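Objective 1b: paired records.
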Amino acid sequence: MYKILAMSAALLATSVAAEEIRIVPDIKRELPTYISEPDLYSEPSFNPLEFGEDYLTGWAEAKVKLPETLSSIERVCINILHAEKPDSSAPHPQSGVVIYTYKTNQSGNKFFNTTIGDRVQQKRVSEHCFDESPWVYQNWLADKEILFTPYNSSGAEIEKVEVVVRGDLSHSDEPSEYVLEYFDFIKTSGMGQASSFFHRDAITELQATFVQALREDKPNAMSIKWFTYGYDKSPEDIESMNPYDFMNRLLAMSEKPALKSVKIINEFGTGSKKHLVIEKVESVFEEDLTLFEVVTLEQRAGQWKLEIPRQLAIILNH
């Protein structure tokens, strides 16, 4: 059942401004890991005039790919989960982040590699925010990636790192471009944040179907509720949820796809429906798997968004 639900979820999409995106970065070391505190009191040893595409990537321990639809950044925070609370015998343990970036001249060309950083008192979860560095935001928007190294001074292992980006998403009105934006978003940010790619009223209809199925004790609906929303949640609790939150939790049942490429090979349809045939390549157990899908978009109130597959409502109602 969950496999069918995941396949159905992969066909969904919509556009709307996203206020907050949470992304788990790619880290060179397998977590949990210990990353020693860098030398923060001397000039960086990297070449400030080397602007090769992968040069700064070589220095950073972590990299976050940002979705192509991200059009503005209001704030970025990096959360570091340490394996344990700092040892009370360690004097003033610190959690820190070093950002690897560059400066540009008036023509917009890179002219100097540099770093910025943030240090706070180490806690079980330490938050590092960079809401006072708008020039760095411009670099991140241009490159669609953030390069950084998390660390601490106590020797505690780092269990998890999460980047929280607050900003706006801008979507294309062209159906084919919109579909590519959707797949790029779930590749970088995962399925569990993709509810804004759905028509809100379509989500509300699905939510009502699910609530009614819960009231009728339908087995699939009950299992999904326990797994996704919590055993103690009542139909009334789910009915009162924000539709986008409801859908995000439902989509979070599907794992983040290991997409390597997506391309559109055909488009057909008239009126308020568009059908796009896509070819996508996924990495499965270190092997490339080529899949073909038909993705359907629906136009409501003059806006194209992906249609919720009918089989998803059927699954929830049984």
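Objective 1b, second protein:
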Amino acid sequence: MVYNCYRLIVGALSLQIALAARSCSNGVSLSFASSSADSFRVTYNNQNVQIQSTTYSFKNYKSPYSHNVALCYLKPYTVYTYSIEDKFKASFRSLPPVGEETELGIVGDFVFQDKSINNLLKPYNSKNSQALLVVRDWPYPNGDQSKWDKWFNLQAPTFSKLPVTGINGNHEDTDKEEKYTTYLNRMPGPISEENKNAFRTYYSADIGLVHAVFLDDYVGALHKVGGQNWLNERNLQLQWLKVTLHRWIALRLLT
């Protein structure tokens, strides 16, 4: 799915659950790709928003320009409409409030050409998915970076309307020298810059009634497996898990 904006190809649209920070409360991150570093006008809720553009290289491959913008301070479970240069327009529903009934779509290990994820836009037993969780292994690039471009375009009909987040698998970090490069550049979701720089992709997010915890099976894999640095990274993730679960339980007891 591609869109023509002033002769620029715009595609790979996705709505990603944003980092729960003071600067972007209850937000999503809109991400799309184009062949130009030029700034695009993005409008939502009748206001223009600031956009950032980045690109990255992997061996002989140079990525399209990725344009990212945070849509913040959204009212819970409310329909919002956004547009890109008045050439593409779509609507999505923000996340349900904490503690409310929640319906999630959970997918992973995609077949590269599989479009079945689009079925998650349809109600199931009269229930609509409110967010999409990807539990590792996104497009199986196996070293072919262009597959990321094609795959995101393939999933754009869903990703442009349904907030998505997830976690990496071996195909995003250890396989074919990926080393997290593409995943961290293309998924500006709820991972802090500090953790991105340290290749720590684990995190948690509150989505309605659900406290979703994402652990990286391969954390530390960029070090020698079984070595001290590898073990240190594994232990850091374990300690983080204990802290975040204890904090979540304490908050639930208060409410």
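The first strand starts at residue 2 and ends at 5. The chain has one domain: 2-254.
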